[in-house]
Amino acid sequence: MRAKVIAITLLALIVAFVKANASERDSLLNLLSASKGKDKVEILIKLTEVTSGTDEAIKYADEAISTALKISDELLAKAYLNKGFALSENYLDNEAIEYYRKALELAQKNGYKNSVLEAYKGISTSFFYIDSFKQSHRYASLLLQQALELDSLRHQAYAFFRFGKIFQEQGQNDSALHYIHRSLGLREKLGDWKEIALTYNGLGRIYFDLAQYDSAIWCYSREVEIKEQMGDQPAYLAIAYLNIGRTHIAISNFQLALEQYQKALRTFERINHQEGIATCNSGLGMIYENLSQSILAIDENEANYLKALGYHKTALELFHNLQKKKEEGQTLQNIGNVFSRLATNRYVARFGEMWEDSLYKIKQTEILASFDSARFYYEKALNIFEELHEEGEIAKVNTNIGSIYSWARDWDKANTYINRALQLARKNNLLYETTAALYAKGESLFRQGRFDEAEIAFIECSRLSERLGLKETLRYSYERLSKLYEYRGDLIRTYAYFKQAVKIKDEIFSEKSQRVIAEMQTKYETEKKEQQLVLMKNKDELQKSIIQRQKLMIIGAIAGSYLILMVALLMFKMFRDKQRANIILEEKNALITRQKQEITDSIKYASRIQTAVLPTSALISDVLPDHFVLFLPRDIVSGDFYWMTRKNDKIVLVAADCTGHGVPGAFMSMLGVSFLYEIVNKESILQPAEILNNLRNHIKTTLSQTGKIEEQKDGMDISLCVIDKQNQKLEWAGAYNPLYQIRNGKLIEYRADKMPVAVHINDFNSFTNHDIEYHPGDAFYMFSDGYVDQFGGTNGRKFMLKRLKETLLSIWEKPMAKQKEILYTIHKDWRGEENDQVDDILIIGFRV
Fold first, then answer.
1. CA-to-CA distance for 209 and 229, rounded, in angstroms?
2. Do residues 190 and 157 touch, judged by C-beta distance below 8 A?
């Protein structure tokens, strides 16, 4: 199980390889020699952590237990937990469970509540790693129950995360997403950035498995952003780059994939991490292997294939030396793919555009001989995967071997291999592998002249490829369908599919993309050579500088001694005078700094309170799975707020913009949330217009607003909807802020009343209630004015509503998570470096 979990993060790379540096270990050992009692146990536990994954860690854990036995049961429980951790990190999870249970028994007996939580957590984790999902779920449930009683959000978050991972392994990805989103909400509440990054990684992996690649990229990018801000260790960042890169490969975004893989490779080479270097070489090989723009670009294709072969062979040697069997098998398969492409390329060079038809003139034995190298590597890969019981990889290799026998017209063997691949892919719900097997099946049937069956296979393959965003496979499926209809004499469909194939090819291989890829490769190779030259130059210069420095030191020592004596006398007098002045200045600065820090701390604390009352992403996802909230406060706290609740099977969703921003706006937002809770949940008012009427009355009463000129006109602009899923209806009312609905590419704007939720000349009028019917797939948007009022662009103008409408119309069909990413990127690009954010920004998008 452990190998399966780890491998899923990347193409082949295992995580958790960055260990504490030697200096930290040595420092702890120095402290250990002079320590006694409880301090000694704590240092031994820390040594176990920093040497985790080694036999040395187990030795320290044993010593911690023997020392703790003489001190206290509480310390002994911690030592048992520590031994469980050390064993688990060494993949000895059955033994780890024994020690976690010892810790649990001791902790329950003596009422050590935190140790009970940690023991449940450890037992659940170790059962998960040995594929005992039922037991893992049981202990995660016990952990959650205890964590709820003790109000430990950190352990609640872990329990939800573990539920998600269990459901993911069982193929229940919807449930997995639900629980990991709940975990994310709690971790965001705690501000635990390390765990937040880990959670985004978990979400990215699920979205990747679901072939929701845009969402996967967004999650992985969020992980990178957090890790970069945290200053995470280089190797962990490199892993995150690779996650993004391999997702781009899956959807044929080779330019973006290359950028991520080269960033990762530079990082791994800098820290000399062999497994990371191997994984990057494997990914770069896959990129160059798939750069064929046209089968007739023979020389260019040959060059790319040979470059890919070089990368793959480097990866193979490294993986073999590291004894990484699965990764070695994957690389052998990749090498087989390249040799298969080289063989095909040589037939194209020999026969030209009609090379496929020309194969019928060649003997089967000759064709098989031309694919000998490919078959050799495929068979070696297959042996490894069967030994490891990796059914997904077995499916891929069977597809590839079946395709070779199809070229050689050995239909029985072709059908056997391809059908086995399709059976395994469907059995394990492996969508990517299913498309590959369907395409191979269509190819084989097409060559046999069984056009009706081939048509079914290609159409199913194209539909699945389109749904998954697999441009490369979709392009080839369309090319094959075009050829099939040409054989049938159906010229209309021949042209239609040919046109679609060309369109996709142009999307993948623009001249700009090809140029950028070449530039990236050149840049990487140049940087590498420059680094080598700099190292050599630095070595020579260092030797010269040592000799020169020795000469200067002798002369300088003589002259400097005299000069220092003279200067010291002068400096002493100046120092005394300056010291007196500095004491006075420091006292004033300390007072100002302390006051500023107190104010900032208060505002930050207020921000935590404000964040706590806003609904979490997980909470909204429970009722509106396809949604986003783009929330960008201008200051630490915000005058914009959003709110959501469920009442009587209806969903109330609010986007509000309070008077001002910063602290004054935040104060109003807290009032707004409090009043909305009372109006909806206590008074059970569920008509949007009535909610706004009541909210206005609450604000006027609380702020003593009578309409006099000298009074503050504090209030809020708001967009509020009530969603009735059972009857597919949505009611809405707005104060200044509108609602947008997009259906079939057309934007419908529901205009708000021209008055705020506050005292106003027309505040005797009721707000207008709008009844809206919605259809599946309709997109809705509510927002404040911060996004459209942002200055930027080439002329420093406002973004404006018109531009927002155009943007939404161009992206509305995409997943909501992707829309959020696009809107954020557009805002950043529009604002640029020279413009500050002018106001709080809030946009909510959702589908019901």
1. 27
2. yes
Half-sphere exposure of 425 toward its Cβ, with a 13 Å CA cutoff?
A: 22
Q: What is the predicted pLDDT for the residue at 449?
A: 86
List all residues 6 or more positions away from 62 whose beta carbon is below 8 Å from its beta carbon: 83
Burial of 81 (0-12, 13-18, 19+ CB in 10 A): buried
Of 87, 32, 80, 30, residue with least CA distance to 57: 87
Domain that holds residue 554: 526-599
Q: Choose among 473, 430, 7: nearest CA to 246.
A: 7
Q: Do 665 and 537 belong to one domain?
A: no
Note whether residue 521 is domain-resident. no
Residue type at 578 in one-letter notation: K
Whole-angstrom distance, CA of residue 694 vs CA of residue 680 = 10
Q: What is the pLDDT of residues 287-315, one digit of tens each?
A: 888 876 667 788 888 999 999 999 999 99
Is residue 592 domain-shared with residue 714, that is, in the same domain? Answer: no
CATH number reported for the structural domain that contains residue 835 in this entry: 3.60.40.10
Mean pLDDT of the chain: 82
Please report which helix (H) or strand (E) contains residue 108, including its range: helix 93-110
Longest distance between any two alpha carbons in the chain, whole Å: 103
Q: Are both 673 and 646 inside the same structural domain? A: yes
How many CB atoms sit inside 10 A of residue 426's CB? 15
Q: Are residues 568 and 629 in the same domain?
A: no
Q: For position 254, what pLDDT does the model report?
A: 78
In a domain, 657, yes or no: yes
Give pLDDT tens digits for 589-599. Answer: 555 655 565 56
Same domain assignment for residues 758 and 841: yes
* Residue ranges with strand state E in 382-425: none
Residue 734 has what pLDDT? 95
User: Do 549 and 591 fall within a single domain?
Assistant: yes
Confidence of residue 495 (pLDDT cuts 50, 70, 90): confident
Structure tokens at 518: 């070449």
722 vs 741: CA distance, rounded Å: 14
Predicted confidence at residue 41, as pLDDT, reads 80
Lowest-pLDDT choice from 181-185, 546-550, 633-637, 716-720: 546-550
- Regarding whether 727 and 690 lie in a shared domain, the answer is yes
CA dihedral (591, 593, 595, 598) in degrees, to 10, reads -140
Is residue 517 scored above 50 in pLDDT? Answer: no
Show which of 558, 576, 599 is a domain's final residue.
599
Please give the tally of structural domains in the chain. Answer: 2
Domain stop point among 575, 599, 623: 599
**Tokens read off for 382:** 């297959």
Task: Enter the DSSP assignment of 614.
Answer: S
Q: Return the closest-CA partner of residue 788 out of 754, 736, 839, 728.
A: 839
Q: What is the mean pLDDT of residues 133-154?
A: 92
- 163 pLDDT more than 90: yes
Q: Are residues 724 and 819 in the same domain?
A: yes
**Locate tokens 């949940």: which residue?**
681
Whole-number pLDDT of residue 14? 35
